[in-house]
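task queued by scheduler; priority normal; single chain, no ligands, no partner chains; default sampling; output format set to structure tokens
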Amino acid sequence: MMYYWDWTWREKMKVLFLLFSLILIGGQEPRGSVPEASANPSTVVVGEVSLRPGERTTFAGEALTMELISVSNDSRCPADAACVRRGNAEVNVKLTQGGRPASFLRLHTAAAPGRGKMEHPNEANYLNYTIRLTDLQPSPKAGAAIPQKSYVATFIVSKEIR
């Protein structure tokens, strides 16, 4: 069995060059790729909105009403602490459009891939709309609970044109 320290200087350099090349090539976007913002031209942004728990808004021309119900299970890493994980908070939203039944969504601050799907999605669909949680303020501080009324969640709502 030949160990790494038994290799010649030239063999070590070949391996390092190959690894470095693979890292560089792996980080490149394929030629002709489309940036994410314009990847689907049939999707338009309806609006960006910031809501506190209990507040609701209606998007002009859409008859879409969105209400922030609550923020729960806030385990985000405090701003004044060093954490191994960044944590997560659940943002509970109610959506209605016209006379259609309401839909309740749970969005997360920390989207994490898992078992073939997003375990904690920061976006969800309602009819032909996509609601994405982009920010939740304030950031937690060690040893201090955040009152519900102090939270402000920011969302981007987009619509798929059919």
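post-processing summary
- Residues 30-38 have pLDDT under 50 and may be disordered.
- Helices lie at 9-26.
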